[in-house]
Amino acid sequence: MKRVVFFLLTNIAVLLVLSVSARILGIDRYLTANGLNMGMLLAFAALIGFGGSFISLMMSKTMAKWSTGAQVIEQPSNLDQAWLLDTVGRLAGKAGLPRPEVAVYEGAPNAFATGPSRTNSLVAVSTGLLQGMNRRQVEAVLAHEMAHIANGDMVTLTLIQGVVNTFVIFLSRAAAYALDSFLRKNDEEASGPGIGYFITSIVFEILFGILASIVVMYFSRQREYRADMGAAQLMGDRQPMIDALRALGSLGSGELPKEMAASGISGKDMMSLLSSHPPLEARIAALQSAN
């Protein structure tokens, strides 16, 4: 319950910060007596779209720890933790990166990497994954997560999310204003947008948001293929990654909190266009057919 409250309060705080920033900059007044100020609307959309995405990125490590209960290994208390730190450090060295924070959390088999940059990141694995896989398979999973960090996937996905968020906000309000103006064109007493504008802007934002999610999830799936290949390169052999994916399929991957779902080694099966991860079978086939 504490994690849910923290998540809600954090999102409310982010919205307040962005709203106050828009008011201070004066870009929230894009509805004028003369119509819609497109330049101001675009600036407002960019602030909300990119601002929300980058604030989430900056807070990603903290949010990940809170939402999953991941405990960072400061000093290893057993051989397994010592092995984890050593393995992640060795893989980071191969990738030319400093060792990220390493954490363990209670849960079904899964793992994730997050953080605002390649030099400020976190790799976490679940107790279910550590217990269900052998060390070679766990190492492949860790290599997969290190490949995400090395590829800068967290920043790339944030930029993509920021772009699509900007266009969703801009297009939904522009389309709603155009529709509202058309419906009220014969109303000579009308001044400014009507209630239809506010209702249709919400409807358009939902519709454009779904289309935007399809775009973002496509890029998310592509990065999983790249991270699988990156893991094979770091391991010097693709077979451990193939074995890890097969093991994950037989064990069944655990669900991460919604805000972390795209960061996991595997995601929940859903409509293919809205899935953050390709099917495990497709990932295995891609590794097997790679040159």
Q: Main traits of this protein?
A:
alpha+beta; Zincin-like; 10 helices; single chain
β-sheet strand percentage: 5-15%
Task: Count up the helices.
Answer: 10
Order of helices and strands: HEEHHEHEEEHHHHHH
**How many structural domains can be distinguished in the coordinates?**
1
Brief sketch in words of this structure:
This protein is an alpha+beta fold and 291 residues long. The protein has a single domain (71-291), classed as Metalloproteases ("zincins"), catalytic domain (Zincin-like, 2-Layer Sandwich), CATH 3.30.2010.10.
Question: What do these coordinates show?
Answer:
The chain has 291 residues and is α+β, with helices and mostly antiparallel strands. It has one domain (71-291): Metalloproteases ("zincins"), catalytic domain (Zincin-like). Helices cover 65% and strands 9% of the residues. The chain has ten helices and six strands. The protein has helices spanning 2-25, 38-58, 60-68, 79-95, 127-132, 135-150, 153-183, 195-235, 239-251, 280-289, and strands spanning 31-32, 35-36, 71-72, 101-105, 111-117, 120-126. The strands form two sheets. The protein has a four-stranded mixed sheet with strand order 3-4-6-5, with helices on both faces. Strands 1-2 form a two-stranded antiparallel sheet. Helix 2 (38-58) packs antiparallel against helix 7, helix 6 packs across helix 8 and helix 6 crosses helix 9. The protein is elongated and about 75 Å long. 37% of the residues are buried. The mean pLDDT is 88.
